[in-house]
């Protein structure tokens, strides 16, 4: 087994076999003829084979060299095809892109922007995965993720802080006009107790008088629907402010949370991923006022 053989010498051997001349092979490959000669000698030594013999006019393949070239052309052609296909894939604006995010970011923000994106990039397939659990970019569980906190370390993750999302108090129309000092006396919709560490839950815990929790949910989108139905007041992302079934009671955002865009470190080298990353950043920029005020 010729473990010292340099596979980069294959195109040099093939070029010399075609031309029969060191100088001609050098011109074809754009290298000096002496470099060709030195690399051929190194290849023969590594293979422990004589690939070429030289007569008075040209370099001729030996029988072993003929076998090498026959297989070498196939190997080199396959490598070229592999590189070409890989380059095309990296530059292509077609194919699937998987995006993970908490459900409300899809339901109340991103989906409204998808038709315009699909019109510009009809060959791309966006896959939305409603999930807020930690994912592994090392294992390629998603291509992008939107998260409301800076993530834990992942050697393969690239993190970008897009900005902030504000939270304000909302209720059904029957709660319109309830003053701030009376909020604590109203029924409230809250997250499950396991999420007591969230900034919006800590804000609610500081209300005086302490609010009566009428309903607990484990989905922010469910909280929005329950608030619309009149189940109680809720601290919701400001981006739901255009909902006609909700009345905003806060005159300012009560809580802010960071929005992070995560991707695999290799995403910047793949065309469709670069397009999606730029699109997400632009959509957030265009929505900044709605998200924070």
Automatic annotation (TrEMBL):
GO terms for biological process: DNA-templated transcription. Coiled coil: none annotated. It comes from the Bacteria. PROSITE patterns: HTH_LYSR (PS50931). Transmembrane segments: none annotated. Signal peptide: none annotated. GO terms for molecular function: DNA-binding transcription factor activity; sequence-specific DNA binding. Keywords: DNA-binding, Transcription, Transcription regulation. InterPro entries: LysR-type_TF_proteobact-type, LysR_HTH_N, LysR_subst-bd, WH-like_DNA-bd_sf, WH_DNA-bd_sf. Belongs to the LysR transcriptional regulatory family. This is LysR family transcriptional regulator.
